[in-house]
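Lab meeting, item 3. Inverse folding demo.
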């Protein structure tokens, strides 16, 4: 199974930096790049911050672009999203209603079981996992403890060293989350967004990773007094190949570059 991960699309209509970032144009380029892949991914997962303001018209633009994908896609919400408006914009994605009021669900039709976990808090940039969400996760994992499983969540369950983003990280329930997943050796990966960068960390006996944004990236600055800045490093996505040894992940950039050349 081949999974493409995209994240932090930030489709924006109006407001600060709309024309500077050009999120719509970048997403269109990303969709074209994914459709051109050989082999073509079986599934695309988008790990949150799909829009900038959570407006219905932003989700209309998002749906217009994602519907061009030649393969199925699934979505989770980020802190910039409005879960109710997201559900309304994608009514055919019935699984996003499985655990209302939270936007979390399981999909069991792929070789990898998909467990999507909601880390968002209303009108806040940081994330959290309350007792109800953690209990849902514990029950869900216990249902199929031996089946290879992929967890999706927007806020990564670890500190990154980018201080200003860590202040907007998963501030509630992070340690409890690690305790819930620790007994399970079938969790292949925890795929996250939020950081607009590729970052990897071991959490609870498995590996958690973040994905670049489709448009802009968070500047890599590990100084204690660093400001929170963004830049235009090449936009990217990740490809996760589920093979004989488990999940193998590849980093890819979007754009036209010289090559490829023969070796």
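The presenter then showed the designed sequence:
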């Amino acid at each position: 199974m081949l999974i493409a991960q995209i994240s932090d699309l930030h489709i924006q209509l109006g407001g600060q930096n709309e024309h500077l970032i050009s999120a719509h144009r970048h997403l269109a380029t990303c969709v074209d790049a994914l459709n051109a892949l050989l082999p073509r991914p079986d599934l695309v997962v988008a790990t949150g911050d799909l829009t900038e303001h959570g407006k219905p018209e932003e989700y209309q633009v998002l749906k217009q672009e994602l519907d061009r994908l030649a393969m199925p896609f699934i979505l989770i919400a980020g802190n910039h999203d409005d879960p109710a408006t997201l559900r309304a914009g994608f009514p055919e994605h019935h699984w996003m209603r499985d655990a209302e009021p939270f936007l979390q669900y399981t999909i069991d039709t792929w070789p990898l079981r998909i467990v999507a976990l909601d880390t968002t808090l209303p009108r806040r940039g940081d994330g959290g996992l309350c007792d109800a969400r953690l209990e849902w996760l514990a029950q869900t994992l216990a249902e199929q403890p031996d089946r290879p499983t992929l967890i999706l969540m927007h806020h990564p369950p670890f500190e990154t060293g980018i201080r200003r983003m860590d202040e907007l990280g998963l501030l509630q329930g992070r340690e409890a989350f690690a305790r819930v997943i620790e007994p399970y050796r079938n969790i292949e990966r925890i795929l996250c967004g939020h950081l607009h960068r590729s970052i990897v960390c071991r959490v609870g006996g498995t590996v958690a990773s973040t994905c670049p944004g489709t448009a802009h990236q968070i500047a890599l600055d590990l100084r204690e007094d660093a400001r929170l800045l963004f830049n235009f490093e090449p936009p990217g996505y990740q490809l996760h190949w589920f093979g004989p040894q488990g999940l193998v992940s590849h980093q890819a950039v979007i754009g036209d570059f010289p090559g490829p050349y023969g070796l």
